[in-house]
Design a protein that fits this description.
Elements lengths: L1 H97 L1
Length: 99
């Protein structure tokens, strides 16, 4: 009887150890699966961020070119205005000296 109880106790211990190992293995598998899913989600996010960076860099280049164009246009317009004002001043100076 004592031997039977001892055997039952060992069986229970073995079952408990097996059950614990099984639960730990299942928990480890779930953790690994979640980790893989998180890594995949991070890789997708990184890819999207790189695409956004490239798109924004292209936009910066485009706007830089556009900015240079408009600066040149403003400089040309300012030059024309200055030449026109200078011409008007010279004309006024000649008119007043003729009087």
């Amino acid at each position: 009887m004592l031997d039977q109880n001892l055997l039952n106790s060992e069986d229970n211990d073995n079952n408990h150890i097996s059950s614990t190992r099984r639960r730990n293995n299942e928990a480890s598998k779930r953790f690994r699966d979640r980790k893989r899913a998180q890594i995949k989600a991070n890789e997708i996010t990184i890819k999207q961020l790189y695409q956004t960076i490239n798109r924004l860099n292209d936009k910066v280049k485009q706007l830089t070119i556009e900015n240079k164009y408009w600066k040149l246009q403003i400089n040309k317009l300012n030059q024309q205005r200055l030449e026109s004002l200078l011409s008007d001043i010279k004309s006024n100076a000649q008119s007043s000296s003729n009087l």
